[in-house]
Amino acid sequence: MPEQLPSFATHGPVRVYASLAELEKRLGEPLEGATRERGTALLHDASTMIRAIAGGEWPERVPEIIPTICLNMAVRAFHNPEGVRQQTIGDLSMTFGSVETGVTVTQEERRLIRIAAGFGVEVDSVQLTSGYEATHTRFVEVEGGGDWLPWQAVG
């Protein structure tokens, strides 16, 4: 069983979901000195955000997707620490996807973290049936204004 980690209320050591060696592989270069410290801090920040989204720590084995998400978050922050959205040099202009700074999580990453944490699978809609048959539709006014809503009367 993994070691027990302190609760969110304390500022003790916490589990980091990816190693510095894995981050170096994705960056394609070894990290030394200040960049090594920065890489370590980014992995820690990404792990902390993942834990907050998941609602806590995994008691047993960490799901396989979590280290990948941790590394993706750290790589984004490493390559674009200022959150530059657009850059123009001469005739060349580049636009990037995010204006947020620091370690960020995408909507898809957030969804995957929540599923890995056991919050369930998302359901788009559920078809309900009734023993009653709708005979006609009326529209009723919405209190306080706005669009009229359809109301199916049962006859």
Brief digest:
This protein is an alpha+beta fold and 155 residues long. 35% of the residues lie in helices and 14% in strands.
Task: Give an overview of the whole structure.
- This protein is α+β, with helices and mostly antiparallel strands.
- 35% of the residues lie in helices and 14% in strands.
- It has four helices and four strands; from the N terminus they run αααββαββ.
- Helix 2 crosses helix 3.
Write the layout of secondary structure elements.
Layout: H1 20-27, H2 33-54, H3 65-79, E1 86-89, E2 92-95, H4 107-116, E3 134-140, E4 149-154
The helical percent reads 25-40%
Q: Tell me the strand percentage band.
A: 5-15%
Radius of gyration: 24 Å
Tally of helical segments: 4
Structural class: alpha+beta
Poorly predicted segments: 1-10
Main β-sheet, spatial strand arrangement: 1-2
Mean pLDDT: 79
Shape: elongated
Which short descriptors sum up this protein?
4 helices, 155 residues, alpha+beta, 4 strands, disordered N terminus, two-stranded antiparallel sheet
